[in-house]
Every structure is written in C-alpha cells, then in structure tokens.
Amino acid sequence: MTRQLVVVSAGLSSPSSTRLLADRIAHAVESRVGARGEALEVHHVELRDLALPLAQAMTTGGLLDPQLDEDKRLVAQADGLVAVTPIFRASYSGLFKMFFDVLDDEALIDLPVLIAATAGSPRHSLVLDHALRPLFSYSRAVVLPTGVFAATDDFGSGDTGGLESRIARAASEMATALVAESAGVEGFLPTEPARAPRRSGVDLGPVTDFASLLKGHDGS
C-alpha cells in the first residue's frame, strides 16, 4: 500500500527557508520509507498560496475555495504530516495557525506529525516545545519525539551536520510510524480500539436553510 505524506509549509517568500527545510525533511522521509520496502506519495501544501481563502474561511466560516477544501481533504486522509512554520515573535506564524484553525476538529486525531520551524536566530528553538507541540497535542495528533529547528546559520554555514542529524532522526521516526501503521504494528500509534476515519469537514450532508428552520415560529 502506498502511504500518503502531507507536507504543510508556511513560508511567505519564494523561495523560502521554510519550504527548503520542508523539502529536505520530505526527501529524508521518502528515502527511509523506500529503504523499508514501502511506497510513499508526498503532497505539498503551500500556505502562502492559500492566504486569501484562509482569511475568507476565518471570517465567514463558509466553504469558499476548492483548493483549500482539497488541501483539507489531503490532511484528513494522510498517513503522516510534516508541519513547518517560520517563527515570528517567538511563535508560529498567523498563516500557519489559520490553516490548522479551519481544519475539522477530528482531522488530526492519531495522525503522526513531525513538527519543524525556521527562524533567524537559534534563540527561537524552544518554540517547538512551547508552541507547536501543544498545538498538535490539543488536536489529538501523535507528535513525534524529534522536532527540527533550523536557524539562518544552519543553512549558510556550509557545515550542516547538526541540522542534517536532526532531520535524519526525525525522518526515521516518521518512517517508523508510517511503516508501523501500514503493518498494523503497535508503536507510535494506538491500535485499540480501531480508529474511525478522520474528518475533513468539507463533505457535509444536506443543510436546512435558515428560513425553513424558522417556519412555524411567529417570533413571539
């Protein structure tokens, strides 16, 4: 069975260090899953392209954009998620938070999540544990033990051994989670009771219009 990995990156520029880190992590996961004899399909969600639909969704609550709806479905159907954000003022970006705010409450349940972040200074490295990890734990995702933080110096020094080792360790954990879930092996993921399908919140049933709901009421 081909496993599905969704990579969400919230970089604002093009190109961005956030997308660069996301690509390096995705490649590392793909190579490790392949080495274990499994197939992996990687889907990228670039939040910069969804800025306007996200703002509309936050202010109206409606399903306004086909691409945003499709990306919500991808996350709900994924076997693993890599979430990468730039750091602004000691926390994740507003664009990053908006995307996870518009997901269905059950979209991330039991989903293995590899958290990662980029920033200009190593001083922000604790954001993985004081901001990102609680966000995904609240959503009942399975946050992998190793997060990946990359400061500007990690990309420009030429000696990226520290960053590469963090990516390798985190990618190995994600590969283990994906292969274990595929084989039904106990490990990162709960196996009892059986997990219900996650919900995207996009495919809704019939909706009764407001006028019909008020029919028969005189307002007194």
Automatic annotation (TrEMBL):
Domain NADPH-dependent FMN reductase-like: 5-152
InterPro entries with a match to the protein in the record: CE1759_FMN_reduct, Flavoprotein-like_sf, FMN_Rdtase-like_dom, NAD(P)H-dep_FMN_reductase
Protein name: FMN reductase
Keyword Oxidoreductase attributed: yes
Keywords: Flavoprotein, FMN, Oxidoreductase
Pfam families recorded: FMN_red
GO molecular function terms noted in the UniProt entry: oxidoreductase activity
Statement: the UniProt record of this protein carries the keyword Ribonucleoprotein: no
PANTHER family: FMN REDUCTASE (NADPH) (PTHR43408:SF2)
Biological source species: Kocuria palustris PEL
Gene3D superfamilies recorded: 3.40.50.360
Origin: domain of life: Bacteria
